[in-house]
Design brief:
Layout (H helix, E strand, L loop, with lengths): L2 H12 L15 E2 L1 H6 L33 H4 L2 H12 L4 E11 L2 E8 L7 E8 L8 E9 L12 H4 L53 H12 L8 H5 L10 E3 L8 E4 L10 E3 L29 H8 L1
Antiparallel strand pairs: 1-2, 2-3, 3-4, 4-5, 6-7, 7-8
Length: 316
């Protein structure tokens, strides 16, 4: 027997392999490190760590029949995981060890409580791994992750579901909607007349059959009120708008002589929706304007180096 083969055989017998049996059902367990260090076979039994914020048991998501067994050597490396987090965050903000989670074969995640009051309810994470038949523990990554009771940002909602008509200010501009179902091309409103002409837009006056209609004085009085209203041509919206209602696809013209000065807004995102607007009025919800496109370059990373004590000192 060669010397190389003898050395290899001796290494095989020195440390038994912890590879899981492929025929067993898939599962993942979170267990305290102390129990794993004394009895490695207990890794198959889910035991919740004793802490105010225990790590919840992960659900198995593997489609194969392998069983993930918590590696006893990695589970016992609590000091290694704590030291790896301390290099990034400092030892003062690392609290109690909350438990371990077997992510895969010889791949374990350690959870620690975060004692920084700024990140209340968050947990420090250190992922450890080791090579087959190796005793050296390797730190894969560290992170600060939110816990079940931590304060996190709300889910993102698209702007067209979030913006209300009253949210628009004179300086705001909404993104342009190219395929807006509420708009169509102007020529699509042209109807064919009885003589075959296609250049006549239906236009008719209401009033026939009514006992009385507006007099010239009544029309002039209404025009004066509308011009001096919040949707007139002298408001902040009109002054700061990049385009006026006269060129907006949401404008519904009035009939008669007032169509030369006014129309009705039919834009659900505009603060003037359903109101009579001057043709020189405008807002950021104009159908043909658009927001300035921002750069697609990745933003510079921001590192939070402040602790609660430093923030209170600066504010004081």
């Amino acid at each position: 027997m060669s010397s190389l083969f003898s050395e290899w055989l001796a290494g095989q017998s020195a440390e038994p392999r912890n590879d899981p049996a492929p025929a067993e059902a898939a599962s993942a367990a979170v267990t305290p490190v102390e129990a794993q260090a004394e009895t490695p076979t207990q890794a198959e039994t889910p035991v919740q760590a004793e802490s105010a914020a225990p790590v919840k048991q992960a659900k198995a998501s593997r489609a194969n029949s392998e069983k993930v067994v918590l590696d006893a050597q990695l589970a016992a490396a609590i000091d290694t995981a704590r030291s790896a987090i301390a290099e990034v965050a400092g030892i003062s903000v690392i609290g109690d060890h909350l438990g371990t989670l077997a992510e895969g074969t010889r791949l374990v995640t350690h959870y620690f409580a975060c004692t920084d009051p700024i990140y209340r309810g968050w947990r420090w994470v250190a992922v450890l791994a080791r090579a087959p038949r190796a005793k050296k523990v390797t730190v894969c990554e560290t992170a600060l992750l939110p816990g079940p009771d931590s304060l996190v940002a709300p889910e993102w909602v698209p702007w067209d579901q979030r913006v209300e008509p009253g949210d628009l200010t004179p300086r705001d501009t909404l993104p342009k909607v190219e395929d807006d179902p509420n708009l169509q091309q102007g020529f699509e409103q042209v109807e064919e007349t009885s003589d075959g002409n296609l250049d006549e837009i239906p236009n008719f006056e209401f009033g026939l059959g009514r006992r009385r209609v507006l007099s010239p004085e009544g029309i002039s009085s209404a025009a004066t009120r509308w011009a001096e209203s919040e949707t007139g041509a002298e408001t902040d919206f009109a002054a700061k708008a990049s385009a006026h209602c006269s060129s907006c696809g949401y404008l519904m013209p009035l009939a008669g002589s007032l169509r030369q000065k006014f129309g009705v807004c039919a834009n659900g995102w505009s603060p003037a929706d359903g109101k009579v607007v001057a043709l020189d009025f405008g807002c950021g919800a104009h159908s043909e304007t658009d927001v300035s496109r921002q750069s697609t370059d990745p933003a510079e990373a921001v590192v939070d180096d402040y602790s609660a004590g430093e923030l209170e000192f600066q504010e004081g």
